[in-house]
Amino acid sequence: MTELTRRSALYMPGSNARALEKAREIPADALIFDLEDAVAPDAKAQARSQVCEAVKTRNYSGREIVIRINALSTPWGADDLAAACAACPDAILIPKVEAPDDIVAVARRMDEQAAPETTRIWAMMETPRAMLNTLAIADTARGEGGRLALFVMGTNDLAKDTRVRLSKDRSAMLPWLMNCIAAARANGLAILDGVYNNLEDIEGFSRECEQGRDLGMDGKTLIHPKQVEPCNRIFSPSEAEVAWAESVKAAFDDPAQASAGVVKVNGQMVERLHLDIARRILTVSARNREASSAREHRNG
Questions:
Q1: Res 293: pLDDT
Q2: Which of 104, 221, 248, 288 would suit a FRET pair with 270, their CA atoms being 20 to 30 Å apart?
Q3: Which stretches make up the HpcH/HpaI aldolase/citrate lyase domain (predicted)?
Q4: Which residues sit in the known binding site?
């Protein structure tokens, strides 16, 4: 399966028609149309209708389109899922996932409602029980929950339920983040970091993006359009990383070293596992440039 560009995933309130329209101009890699947290109970039905109509227009080319539904245990979940299946987004984001059966149940309903195979499942990892069942949840990607493609960290809910303090370095959260990353990678899943709440603190937001990227996240979920640009930049390979990757590739491409297991690059010993890393950096860099160029062309 082709790896997608998912540096930035912006939540858009499903009850705000103007926001859904404006989303067409925002250079986020993914747009999450939210029917859950961002929508008041008395606005759920209207939000569901206008989100699904917006998705059906297919006017968001160049972005991955995701609908976050309400949990199936709520009064709105079943209707949300049925409407989302009919709208055929790229993915349906399931909140409050706690066990493998949560993924399997949604996958079965999607099959029953003839959702296209291209509509995948994204799972919110945001409860203490989810942290205890992380690998089992991720393992469903290999079985009946095979639509599962991505974990989204719900750090706000996780902090609320565990009562940890969200400090600047997120030290209390790191074991859970790393456990989810390991489980995701073991099953070929992508993973997105949680949101940053202070819209005025771009420095702090950038710092948390850097941390997420260092941890191995593919990107970050966002709550405001002004967070998109720094997020896309930080989750893209830097010029220095691309230069290193090109040097490593060139060294192993040298016919004199074609069979070498270890070569010297800029004074450092580099193994073939580093060649794999270098190739991925170059692939990601090229893919990011293509995605940005395509959006600029369409918006221009």
A1: 64
A2: 288
A3: 7-225
A4: 68, 126, 157
